[in-house]
Amino acid sequence: RLEASFVTTSDLRPEQPFDLALLNIVWWPDARRGAELIALAAAHVRPGGIIAVGGGKNAGMGGAERDLTALVGPCSVMIYKKGHRVLAAERPAAWTDPAREPQHSTITVHGVTLTIEHSAGVFADGNLDPATAMLLEALEVPEGAEVLDLGCGAGMIALVIKRLVPSATLTLVDSSVVAVALAERNLERNGVAGRVLASDGVAAVAGQQFDLVVSNPPFHVGRARTDVIGRRFIAEAHSVLRPGGALVLVVNRFLRYEPDIQAAFGNGRELAGNDSYKVLAAERA
After folding, report:
1. What are the extents of the domains in the chain?
2. Average pLDDT for residues 73-97, to the nearest whole number?
3. 190-223 as b/e, with b when 16 or more CB fall inside 10 Å?
4. Do the domains 18-90 and 103-283 sit in the same CATH topology, yes or no?
5. Nearest by Cα to 134 from 282, 284, 275
6. Per-residue pLDDT averaged across 79-92, rounded?
7. What is the β-pairing status of strands 210-215 and 18-24?
8. What is the assigned CATH class of domain 103-283?
9. Angle between helices 156-164 and 130-138 (to 10 degrees)
10. Exposed, middle or buried: residue 127 (CB in 10 Å: 0-12, 13-18, 19+)?
11. Is the pLDDT of residue 3 over 80?
């Protein structure tokens, strides 16, 4: 057995290089994001360190092998069992980061025009998705409201809120450090002030109180569908709302979050909806 220490970091620029980076392709939303993660891992591994990628044959390991070889160098199979394998490549001393030019989109919503930087690993990839558009259409933000964007992604909801209600105060949180960095850049690019925090749910703002919590909660983790995140967001939103504060979230029509909202808040209603999506709201007593 090897002596090892494991580091979890929300810093995209760790101070020290690592000896080994581990990537599981089940968490990759698509191949483009997988290539970005391989390059990000290689950037934080010392020369001679190992970048290891694991997953099932039918989950995209063929593409992962090509990307690992192209971005890092020749790779070999470390482990193979029951259709799953772990590939490893050694980072060469002369490795060069294949930095990509940032991708931007311009969107207009409610008369507000925004320039959005986007990434393959962050929801909607620079587009205004129909669910978020429905949320923004139904949303009423009081003057001077302290707003928490829970699971902010690229920051689009918060950007529109601040442009429409300049007196609002914004806090954006997301568990993805890629999303956090992206949201920070998007706020700066559009001249919008706000706090952006890496956070597991509301952990980074625990003990604080808000007038409004807004969210378009994810229902996938990698490629796997789940309602656990949405249910958790509902419960945690109640804990950071001040009395009279409101939760407003948009979800797919098939997701049954109404019982969770009733359990947490004792009330709830549908503000808007169609066959695909619904905007749900509740108020803390």
Report:
1. 18-90, 103-283
2. 92
3. bebebebbbbebbebbeeeebbbbbbbbbbeeee
4. yes
5. 275
6. 92
7. unpaired
8. alpha beta
9. 30
10. middle
11. no
Mean pLDDT of 233-255: 97
CA distances from 49 to 41, 71, 177, 204 (A): 10, 14, 23, 32
Averaged pLDDT for residues 123-135? 79
Give me the architecture of the 18-90 domain, per CATH: 3-Layer(aba) Sandwich (3.40)
pLDDT at 11 over 50: no
Q: CA 220, CA 228: separation in Å to the nearest integer?
A: 9
What is the rounded distance in angstroms from the CA atom of residue 51 to the CA atom of residue 37? 10
* CA pair distance 222, 225, nearest whole angstrom: 8
Tell me what pLDDT residue 283 has. 98
Which pTM value belongs to this model?
Answer: 0.77
**pLDDT at residue number 12:** 47
The amino acid at 20: L
Q: Among all chains, which residue has been given the structure tokens 């990628």? A: 53
